[in-house]
């Protein structure tokens, strides 16, 4: 049976695991520091639907640059190679930092990681029908 994915993405500490815990009722680790979820974690729901809790995309605390890059590469690889089977991708934002960080970077001509994630998802998954 081909798995179908409901994927949660976002920066480290955005609140991905907390939302999953609260809404789906899964007993998974959440934390105050970025970098709690270190592996792409799959949780079967019903039928062929599998919920995916991603590690945070971007900088995390207490990890080497090498591990950070490895995790970021794994996230991109997972999303790209499974794009056909992702039924829904939820991009979680931390409302206390999103606007400020995005505006500050935009003024300098950069895009925030949050915006980068959404653009990437739109690129690989396309727009809504
Ligand atoms: N989800 C959520 N978390 C909040 C909110 N306000 C504060 N927090 C805190 O923010 C932290 C989020 O932690 P996680 O849910 O582990 O975040 P995550 O995105 O899974 O983080 P990584 O696994 O490190 O990528 C927790 O300590 C929450 O208590 C909120 O409105 N929503
Ligand atoms: Mg997490």
Task: Tell me the CATH architecture.
Answer: 3-Layer(aba) Sandwich
Continuous helix count: 4
Average pLDDT over all residues: 94
The first-level CATH class is given as Alpha Beta
Q: Biggest sheet, in brief?
A: 4 strands, mixed
Name the descriptors:
129 residues; alpha/beta; Rossmann fold; 18% strand
Describe the structure.
This protein is 38% helix and 18% strand. The chain is α/β, with parallel strands linked by helices. It has a single domain, classed as Rossmann fold (3-Layer(aba) Sandwich), CATH 3.40.50.300. It has a four-stranded mixed β-sheet, sandwiched between helices. The mean pLDDT is 94. The structure holds guanosine-5'-triphosphate and magnesium ion (MG). Guanosine-5'-triphosphate binds next to helix 1.
Write the layout of secondary structure elements.
Blueprint: E1 4-10, H1 16-24, E2 41-44, E3 49-53, H2 65-81, E4 86-92, H3 98-107, H4 113-125
Parallel strand pairs: 1-3, 1-4
Antiparallel strand pairs: 2-3
The structure holds guanosine-5'-triphosphate and magnesium ion (MG).
Short account of what is shown:
Helices cover 38% and strands 18% of the residues. The protein is an alpha/beta fold and 129 residues long.
